[in-house]
Design a protein that fits this description.
Layout (H helix, E strand, L loop, with lengths): L1 E11 L8 E8 L2 E16 L2 E6 L5 E3 L3 E10 L8 E4 L3 E8 L3 E6 L2 E7 L3 E7 L5 E5 L7 E2 L4 E2 L5 E5 L5 H10 L4 E7 L16 E2 L9 E3 L7 H19 L14
Antiparallel strand pairs: 1-6, 1-16, 2-3, 2-6, 3-4, 4-5, 6-11, 7-8, 7-11, 8-9, 9-10, 12-15, 13-14, 16-17, 16-18
């Protein structure tokens, strides 16, 4: 198991269905008097006024006090063709090409737009069910040779939704009024002992049978000298195993002394 730090972007949406996050903000003049997060349940007309009811107890308010939102969990990783990403923390796009200089995407159906890599963060999970990705379809035994881990003939693909955070996490997010950063879990096997290196076998995001990711809180940790020595030993072992050479010659190692 490995974890990676992810940032959470909350962006407006026109979607409105049970569970969607509602940002409630009340202004008095030019001053924000109230800002809170809820989850949408239903729309009702009460006393002649159209209101949103919420999953958070019996709370409700006029529709104009709320703005629906989606969550996007992003990592500092270069988006590649087919990946979704958040641009400058404000907009969501799908990459159709990536180069050393930038990420190419379409805006309102028109191609030819390029964004700097530093302004893009790859989306790994979201509450936005409209985001899908094309993945290999391993469910057809006549097309996929499980024993040799290869397709017979032309590879088969299917579309699936991006992973999502759990309902428990979304509820906690609303209760706290937002969370900036979390840790997301990845799965390791004998091909990706260095999970986030630039290899043909990157670590796979850990999901359950409901395509829900595993999230942990970010906690600052200080290491003792003995713990650093253990970390150095682990890195030496991994580098030797992965590249067949001494840790001091491993390109991506860090000096821990």
């Amino acid at each position: 198991m490995a974890t990676k730090k992810a940032k959470i972007a909350m962006l407006p949406t026109e979607d409105l269905y049970e569970g969607v996050i509602l940002l409630r903000h009340i202004w008095k003049g030019h001053r924000l008097e109230c800002r809170s997060l809820w989850q949408y349940k239903d729309t009702e007309v009460i006393g002649g006024v159209t209101q949103y009811t919420t999953l958070n107890g019996s709370f409700r308010d006029q529709t104009e006090c709320f703005e629906p939102q989606h969550l996007y969990l992003t990592v500092d990783e270069k988006p590649r063709s087919g990946d979704w990403f958040v641009l400058e923390g404000k907009e969501v796009f799908k990459a159709y090409n990536s180069t050393n200089s930038g990420i190419w995407f379409r805006r309102e159906g028109k191609s030819g737009y390029e964004a700097s890599i530093k302004d893009c963060r790859k989306i790994v999970a979201t509450t936005d069910t409209s985001l899908t990705k094309k993945v290999m379809d391993y469910s057809k035994p006549d097309k996929y040779d499980v024993g040799n881990e290869m397709f017979k003939g032309k590879p088969q693909y299917k579309k699936e939704h991006l992973p999502s955070p759990s309902q428990a996490f979304i509820k906690k997010y609303c209760e706290l009024g937002g969370i900036d950063e979390v840790l997301v879990e990845y799965e390791l096997d004998d091909r990706n002992m260095l999970p986030f290196s630039d290899t043909n076998y990157p670590a796979k995001l850990k999901t359950d049978s409901y395509n829900t990711i595993t999230i942990k809180s970010v906690e600052e940790k200080t290491y003792s000298k003995s713990e650093l020595q253990v970390l150095k030993s682990d890195i030496q072992h991994l580098c030797t195993w992965y590249q067949g050479r001494d840790v001091d010659r491993c390109r991506k190692s860090r000096k821990l002394d």
